[in-house]
Amino acid sequence: MNEHTPGVVRRTLSRLASSAKEHEAAELREGCDRIGATLVADLPARERVVVTGTLRTVTLRPRAGVPALVAELYDGSGTMSLIWLGRRQIPGIDPGRSIVARGRVTYDHEQPVIFNPRYELRPVGAE
Hints:
This protein has one helix spanning 5-35; strands at 48-60, 68-74, 79-85, 98-108, 111-115, 118-121. The protein is an alpha+beta fold. The chain has a single domain (5-121), classed as CATH 2.40.50.140. A 5-stranded mixed β-barrel has the order 1-2-3-5-4. It is globular and about 55 Å long.
């Protein structure tokens, strides 16, 4: 090993991780195309839409004293929030899970949101 080896290894690992993320994003966008879902990057305000992707995070964040389950959905083009008011948890709504959600889009500080979406859980590993 010479003095340049750590830098070469670091760059190679970075490239591999980057291409894995790009591959995941491309697969998620293809999933949107297959079911006719709207990409998060293209969501129109105040319209009813179908979105699909992977849940990145799921947290409990009370809103005005009411429990609210907030899930961040990633579809390869961007992220949005799915918020179920009055819920502390929903079986199957877990990080890493694939989901198809339907509802009316609103925006909260430029972040797209669907409140109380209808949803279908996708089989684990489905895009």
